[in-house]
Amino acid sequence: MEGASLIYSTIDKLFFGLTLLFALQVPQLADQYHQFIAGAYDANQWQIDGYQTTADKYGYPSINDMIEHHLKNDVESVRDDAIQKQSTLQRQNDLGKGLQVFAEGNLIEKIGFMLSPSGWPYIDKTLKQFTFGLPTSTEGILFGVILGLLLNLVI
Length: 155
Prior knowledge:
Blueprint: H1 2-57, H2 63-71, H3 76-104, H4 107-115, H5 121-129, H6 138-154
Helix pairs in contact: 1-3, 1-4, 1-5, 1-6, 2-3
């Protein structure tokens, strides 16, 4: 019986160690996700600045006015381009909300945004570039330890 208990205890400690390492990756993922959406925001802004330049050049009061005019155009490619511009503006709005959460929110709020419909499309792209590491913030370490303990207790 003592041998089985020793094996169980060893497996339990190993499992806790693995769940702790896994849980500590969540804050890392959030940090890398933040970097990704910040880059996407900047790239989108560059594109939107180009839209504004075009709207100004042709006398539209705003980008939205230009888009609305183009949506009524008889040429299908002009309408499709307007729809793409609307999509870019919506994506920029969503990314801006995400950046605000990452600037002001706690780790739970950040994870909530990442898993929301606005944030979900960027998870896959972030995971493709994800590198394992240890969080450097107290909040990240505490979150990882608590999640690791909870996972160990649940499983």
